[in-house]
Design goal:
Blueprint: E1 4-6, E2 12-14, H1 17-26, H2 31-42, E3 49-50, H3 51-65, H4 70-73, H5 75-80, H6 87-99, E4 103-111, E5 116-125, E6 128-135, H7 146-158, E7 165-170, H8 176-185, E8 188-190, H9 200-207, H10 220-228, H11 242-246, H12 252-261
Parallel strand pairs: 1-3, 6-7, 7-8
Antiparallel strand pairs: 1-2, 4-5, 5-6
Helix pairs in contact: 1-2, 2-3, 7-8
């Protein structure tokens, strides 16, 4: 098959059935479901189709054949919906670290040797304190670059008397120079597909720490209401009673869909 697809960057690349198969497998799709989706998808392809259009079709087909599983397939897109500002992403990173045994604070002003700094996340564990910079991007194809790693290193040096290590956490991929600089300077890097098989997406999926934005039926106003109630992860909604859900102020359609989603057997987010 010689179909060319248009990437988010505008560049063309050959369509890869293996890429779709691997992404569906990572999302937990069953082998027979993957075969059905690919059979239907291939019949709909045309030269120049965007990767976004392919994603939307695969997402819909996965939800059709394996109820609820499509929401896991949407993880990369869901992370980009933690905006338009980076603040929800910072809250998400803090909650992720909370579940991993850290104590966290967000948006803290700290006095350095030279100037004051606003820190995205301060994390503490085993008597060590970590300075965490959260780099959020909401445009597909955007990578976190070496200048971002340089910035966090400069901040760390001004605050080094208060922190054990600097971390850079991003929802996108890292450039090779960002990785090279981070490794050279001892910065802990966590990004999409980095490090190796232990990237951000693996950490989320392994620990079931999916952001609320995976629930694509929630609009921006719904999400804002949930953030205001310190609800950031899908799993935060699962233990809430009907009364607690009703008190959140969601519109009636979103409320019904939340209740229906968390009534599914073997829910992937809890």
């Amino acid at each position: 098959m010689n179909i060319k697809v248009t990437k988010a960057s505008g560049l063309l690349e050959p369509f890869s059935e293996d890429k779709i198969r691997r992404s569906l497998k990572r999302a937990g799709a069953q082998p027979q479901v993957i075969d059905k989706i690919l059979a239907q998808l291939i019949g709909r392809l045309h030269d120049g189709i965007t990767t976004r259009a392919i994603y939307q079709q695969v997402f819909a087909l996965l939800n059709q054949y394996q109820a609820g599983q499509g929401y896991q397939y949407s993880l990369k897109d869901a992370l980009m919906q933690l905006g338009p500002s980076g603040y929800p992403f910072e809250k998400f990173v803090a909650r992720l670290l909370d579940y991993l045994g850290y104590q966290t604070q967000t948006n803290i002003i700290m006095k350095g040797k030279c100037i004051n700094h606003e820190i995205d996340v301060v994390a503490n564990k085993d008597r060590k304190q970590y300075l965490i910079e959260c780099k959020f991007h909401n445009r597909p194809g955007t990578k976190t670059r070496s200048k971002d790693a340089l910035g966090i290193q400069a901040r760390f040096e001004d605050l080094s008397h208060q922190f054990h290590q600097a971390w850079l956490i991003t929802n996108t991929k890292l450039t090779s120079t960002a990785i090279k600089y981070g490794l050279c300077r001892g910065i802990k890097l966590l990004a999409w597909r980095y490090p190796g098989d232990l990237g951000l997406e693996t950490l989320i999926q392994t620990n079931k720490l999916h952001p609320l934005t995976c629930l694509t039926f929630l609009n921006q106003q719904d999400r804002r209401l949930l953030y205001q109630n310190n609800l950031v992860l899908c799993r935060d909604l699962a233990p809430l009673s009907d009364k607690q859900l009703n008190d959140l102020g969601l519109n009636s359609q979103a409320l019904a869909q939340v209740k229906q989603f968390f009534s599914l057997p073997n829910n992937i987010f809890i």
